[in-house]
Amino acid sequence: MRFTTSLGIRKAFLSLHGLQHRSMETINFQRVLPSSSMSAEAKLQATKLESQVLQYLGNICVKQLIVVDCAVYLMDVPSLMATTFSKCIEHMDLQKNQLQAYDQTYFATVLTFVHLRYLDLSFSSNAKRLSVCETTTKSRFGVSSGRFNSKRSASLPLIIHLPRNLSHVNICGISTHFDRWDKPDIKFVNGEAFNILNMSFIGLTDVSVGISGLENLHTLDLSYNFDMNIEPSFLDAFPNISKLYLGGRSLKDNYLMEHGKRLFQHLERLSVLDISHNDLNILPRDILKSNPQIKVINLGNNKFQTFPIDTKTTPSLSTLDLSDNSLSELDAATTAALDKMVDRDSKKGLSLMLENNLMFCGCSSQRFILWLFETPVQLDNGRNYKCISENGSVTTTRDIYNRFEQEWRSCVGPFWLFLAIIGLIMQAATILCIILVMKFKSRIISFFLRIFGAPLRLPHRRDFPYHAFICYTQSAEQFVWYDMVKRNLRLYLRDREILPGDEMVDGIMQGIMESWKTVFVLTQNVDEDQWMTFAVKAGVYNITDLRTDRVLVLVHSEYDQQIPDPILRIIDEDCIFRYSPQTTDRDPVWNDLHNAIIGHEY
Asked: Which ranges of the chain have pLDDT less than 50?
């Protein structure tokens, strides 16, 4: 029997009057809605199923009752207790209605349906989960009722007898007010056949109760119960779980980082895990090390920036959903590990979902772009994902792959250009070094011999009979004799050392060669004295790399500008000493000049 008209669900149930005391396979009401022309009050009345409306159903032995999307506002389920209906019903599907909050009497009545196998009281279908999760169940209905609890002592377990054949219960999205499962402990009887339980969207906040009797449960959905406080040992009561759904902000921040490994520790048969929509950005890499049989992991709609799990701990993995995260690329180690999980000989594959991750398509991610289109891993969206290029524009991975050679050249070109420039510079430097070595071969050999301690003896002050050769003009003769001779130095003075009749040129050259230092005393019109000019040229010529400080200059402060250019080109400022008419015997300039002449031994 099936109704799909605008008759209204109330009239549809009243029409069962003629079917009383009969046995039926199925009663199916889908989208049996009141007429749109009815007033609001009439529509509300047409969606109420009180006891007098359900009395005819109570006298029918039917195996399946399907009332789907009929806008049922009220259904007096307790009135069906101890009726013919309660003894025959096996399958109850009441999903997508607008039933008000269920309380203890509703569930107590359903538990008396001894042959019940399937129960679906869910408010919304899977396709509507995202819209439903925007508000809590309580705010959606705005109705309160008594809690499903017991007045017995908290130290004694609450014993619940289930229909022996009950295997599937879906109470997704209904307002049960079971917001806390903390006490007392619950013991289920006759739960051997019970294997699917959907309790998503029901407003659970605390799950710390001890449960027993549901050891054969293989599917548990607690998703979209926001920020639940789950006892880490809670799932130990369900050792045979193979499918677990904890998505939709069901877990508090950092809960899985702190308790994740303990939460899944004893679920050795777990094959499907959904922890999507939890705003996760990090997980323990070995969170699933105790779950080697896991095949499907849904980590979509989180905030992961790097690959979150260690594939070595999930050898049976076949599907991994990382869509709607913050991944920009996968590193080389991760892509290699994913490739190893594909065994073409045994036809073992791996599906990876990466849609709605904004990838990076720069030079550093070229390896990843190639991997997307060459890996044996099955990828979603035709392997084509949005990505940001080096210049900030939005493109796609397929577009980058189609012009990969051009992109590769733009990435490696600057590097090779830089390398070529460095090579040219090195080549030019090598040629220059060769030219310098050929031109100054002897000088370079001598330099390195000195640096590395070759047996090359450098001149010492004690090798010279005079401390300094003093070169002066006639106008400075009195200054030299009266101010410099008394400095306790062995000085070569041409007027004293060159005897009458000797060649002046030979005497000057001998004085320079036999003196440790050469001191030029510069006064006015120094360039007009021919012997002074000759001595300057000879002294400059006598300077070598071994003794660059051999020439000193003592100049009158008024004649600084008259220092000959040949001297200025070869001496440092430290080798120039200035005096004036006010200079006394104790002036520091004499001490400085003395120290410069004596110098240091090499």
From this structure: 124-152, 601-602
